[in-house]
Specification:
Layout (H helix, E strand, L loop, with lengths): L2 H44 L4 H12 L21
Helix pairs in contact: 1-2
């Protein structure tokens, strides 16, 4: 393997790692949305889901983040792209 090939391989591996992280983030977002939709339909019959649902979903969304790290909810992938 040439030096240029090794460098290109490293670039591709880094890009692959970033893309896998994005897929994981989007998969989690998708699961949370599905949970919210399911709970919203249940909440219509129960009149309210309560704060326990949102607390649980927030805990799932922020799981694994270092304490004190924040992110914008409307831009959930901005910080994740700089891995």
């Amino acid at each position: 393997m040439e030096v240029g090939d090794a460098m290109q391989l490293k670039v591709l591996e880094d890009e692959n790692r970033k893309l896998k992280g994005l897929v994981a983030d989007l998969s989690l977002d998708n699961k949370i949305l599905k949970d919210l939709l399911g709970k919203a339909s249940n909440a219509q019959s129960e009149k309210s889901c309560g704060s326990a649902c949102s607390d649980h979903l927030w805990a799932k969304r922020t799981e694994g983040l270092p304490v004190g790290q924040s992110f914008q909810i409307d831009q959930p992938l901005q910080g994740k792209q700089e891995r």
